[in-house]
């Protein structure tokens, strides 16, 4: 029983670290301990590492550390792409090695051997499409394809475009730079990115469910419930049986149990990412615009707090600022993701609103 609690606490701690690392900067976690953990992982720990390297190795160590940081964080590199492929390959290998021998079974037929291969292959295809497709790169030759240009102090740029400092290019309807894809997410590949998130969420959920059914089949074949209730006199209620069944599963099928836990955690994270980006798509907003809006609201809040009460501030923000000039309703916003404006007829783009970046 003590080992079970250790595994549960380890899983919760891992989930907390992963959520804090990936989602701690979201506005919803502002001011919480998750944001503080995110800050420590992404900033504080690196600061301590920098001080240690400088103390131990001097300027040469600092130069090497900064070179690695520049390569990993400030220029395109395939590190996370390789990491993604490694995770998928290793996970599928352990699933095949540990569980395929139980297929077909009482609850799982033989087709799942091939369905799993198809699922992983489709996920790989979506990964390649998102990673290597053009996100909507804007240059002097094709600027008119994306929108009527808006004059800025330096160049003609379409509304909602942004220069990505990592890729060193201007991207139409820029959402964010995705390190996992080693590519920007913009007007032309948001649809592939959304399909990637949705498919991998379903794939992880599918894997967890099938492995769960395999374990249920093994429990039935070994008559675990019957043995526990008949020979050990354990009550047949769920709460009485659950600890003993869990102990048996961890002792006999620990690989499957760990993979199920991993797939469940990843599926929850992917569900959160997909839900967040689906909300952005349905409201015709980008991640870049969301963070800019949060910065504006924060600045506006501080300015108004110096002049008026909290009630006056709330009324000012609610009635004085238009949230999103690009919102065309759920169907219209979804249509822009599925079929980008830059791929439509010119007369359709002529009606598009434009504003300075």
Automatic annotation (TrEMBL):
PROSITE patterns, per the entry: DHHC (PS50216)
Catalytic activity: L-cysteinyl-[protein] + hexadecanoyl-CoA = S-hexadecanoyl-L-cysteinyl-[protein] + CoA
TM helices/strands, residue ranges: 6-25, 78-95, 115-133, 197-217, 224-245, 257-276
Compartments, record wording: Membrane
InterPro entries named among the record's database cross-references: Palmitoyltrfase_DHHC, PFA4/ZDH16/20/ERF2-like
Enzyme Commission number(s) from the entry: 2.3.1.225
Domain of life: Eukaryota
Any Gene Ontology CC annotation: Golgi apparatus
Main location: membrane
Keywords: Acyltransferase, Membrane, Transferase, Transmembrane, Transmembrane helix
Palmitoyltransferase DHHC domain mapped to chain residues: 154-294
Entry GO MF terms: protein-cysteine S-palmitoyltransferase activity
Domain notes: The DHHC domain is required for palmitoyltransferase activity.
Name under which the protein is recorded: S-acyltransferase
Species: Spirodela intermedia (Intermediate duckweed)
Source organism phylogeny: Eukaryota, Viridiplantae, Streptophyta, Embryophyta, Tracheophyta
């Amino acid at each position: 029983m003590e080992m079970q609690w250790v595994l549960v606490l380890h899983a919760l701690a891992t989930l907390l670290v992963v959520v804090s690392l990936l989602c701690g900067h979201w506005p919803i976690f502002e001011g919480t301990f998750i944001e503080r953990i995110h800050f420590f992982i992404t900033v504080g720990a690196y600061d301590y590492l920098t001080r240690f390297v400088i103390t131990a190795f001097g300027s040469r160590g600092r130069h090497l550390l900064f070179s690695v940081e520049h390569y990993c964080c400030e220029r395109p590199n395939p590190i996370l792409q390789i990491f993604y492929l490694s995770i998928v390959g290793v996970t599928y290998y352990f699933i095949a090695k540990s569980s395929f021998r139980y297929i077909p079974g009482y609850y799982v037929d033989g087709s799942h051997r091939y369905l799993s291969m198809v699922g992983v292959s489709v996920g790989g295809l979506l990964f390649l499409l998102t990673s290597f497709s053009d996100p909507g790169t804007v240059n002097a030759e094709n600027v008119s394809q994306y929108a009527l240009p808006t004059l800025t102090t330096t160049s003609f740029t379409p509304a909602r475009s942004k220069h990505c400092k990592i890729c060193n290019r201007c991207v139409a309807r820029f959402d964010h730079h995705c390190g996992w894809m080693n590519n920007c997410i913009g007007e032309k590949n948001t649809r592939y990115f959304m399909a990637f998130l949705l498919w991998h969420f379903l794939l992880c959920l599918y894997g967890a469910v099938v492995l769960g059914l395999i374990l249920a089949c093994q429990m039935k074949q070994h008559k675990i419930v019957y043995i526990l209730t008949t020979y050990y006199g354990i009550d047949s209620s769920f709460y009485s049986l659950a600890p003993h069944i869990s102990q048996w599963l961890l002792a006999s099928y620990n690989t499957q149990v760990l993979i199920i836990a991993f797939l469940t955690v990843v599926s929850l994270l992917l569900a959160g990412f997909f839900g967040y980006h689906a909300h952005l798509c349905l409201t015709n907003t980008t991640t870049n615009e969301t963070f800019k809006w949060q910065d504006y609201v924060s600045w506006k809040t501080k300015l108004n707090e110096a002049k008026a009460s909290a009630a006056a501030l709330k009324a000012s923000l609610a009635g004085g600022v238009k949230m999103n000039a690009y919102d065309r309703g759920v169907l219209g916003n979804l249509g822009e993701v599925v079929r980008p404006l830059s791929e439509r007829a010119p007369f359709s783009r002529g009606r598009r609103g434009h504003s300075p970046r």
